[in-house]
Amino acid sequence: MSEQDDRPASRDRDERGRPRNARPRDALGRPLRYGAEAAPRLQESPFRSPAQSLAQAQRLLDAGRPFEAHEVLEDAWKAAPDAERELWRGLAQLAVGLTHHARGNRVGALTLIARGAANLAAYADRPPHRVDVPGLLAWSASVTEPASDAAPASDAAPGSPPPPRLISLG
Predict the structure, then answer these.
(1) Which residues are paired to 13 by β-bridges?
(2) Which of 6, 70, 124, 146 might form a disulfide with 95, Cβ 3.0–4.6 angstroms?
């Protein structure tokens, strides 16, 4: 039986009629064949404060779940006021960069981490929500430098950089 034969007859849609992807996904967000068992997913939250978003994303990064951290940060990006949108976009790009690294796509990972850092740079002097922008820029530079051999995190794929710290602890 081909993969197409397993597809549902109609697409899953949200309350506004927009299509949702009902296809199961693995822990790194890669699509699986229809009917396969999906990895456990983060329960959606209609609203998280910036502090809640940062704390949740940090927990997910620390647990080796960058795809889900990216989703949390992307939600914050979409809900952010205009003055903070590039901050949240940059944070989401760092997380999706880690996702690509875990998937084995080092070039894509480094590209997204560099883009994320570029979006964060404008906030270096006055970071909102205690985001450790200087620390994140240093982390990004250490990961994207050509000679970078970042130590693997315990739950990460071999050679994956350790997760960054999103907020300053001081």
Answers:
(1) 19
(2) 70
Query: Could you give the CA distance from residue 47 to residue 44 in angstroms, rounded to a whole number?
Result: 9
Q: What is the pTM of this model?
A: 0.73
Q: How many CB atoms lie within 10 A of CB 115?
A: 17
User: Which has the minimum average pLDDT: 61-65, 108-112, 154-158?
Assistant: 154-158
Q: pLDDT tens digits, residue range 141-163? A: 999 886 544 543 334 445 678 99
The answer to whether the CB of 24 falls within 8 A of the CB of 6 is: no
The answer to whether 139 touches 149, Cβ cutoff 8 Å, is no
Q: How far is CA 107 from CA 55, 86, 101, 110, in A?
A: 28, 22, 8, 5
Same domain, 79 and 6: no
